[in-house]
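During the reporting period the student researcher (J.K.) took over the structure-prediction task from the postdoctoral fellow and processed the backlog of single-chain submissions. One of the processed entries is reproduced below for the supervisory committee.
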Amino acid sequence: MIRAVLVAVMLWATSLPAHAIYADPPLPDPAQEERAQELMRILRCLVCQNQAIHDSNAPLAKDLRVLVRERIAAGDTDEQAVDYIVERYGDWVLLNPPFKATTLALWFGPVLVFLLGAASIVVYQRRHRAEAVAAAPLTADERKRLDRLMDDGSGA
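J.K. obtained the following structure tokens:
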């Protein structure tokens, strides 16, 4: 009986973090809150990197959500709020960064890494194939054994 109670208490205690609520207090004006939610969907979580701050539970994402709401509540337009955050964190904070000289690495970096990897594989394969072709010729005994294998297929 005591064992069952201890197990139940341990299971309950370990499940407490699962019940944590990550809800941020919304803006009192529903129209402003809707604008803030839309902006949160286009801003990248700098910790998660491939997730919008709207969906992230990272502390930095929470701070950015609060910042977006503060900017909207202060009367900023959507563009002003996004520009303010981009000014502080750079274009990387946008899930879809603009195409300009400073973001070329964001746009072409993955393609460049892929092409360098593919070229490395091709070079490696060619060298490996060239080494295999340049192998030493068969000795007379190896040639006789190969001929026997080819003739009767037994190899013994």
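The committee noted the following: The domain at 25-98 is CATH 1.10.8.640 (Helicase, Ruva Protein; domain 3).
J.K. will present the remaining backlog at the next meeting.
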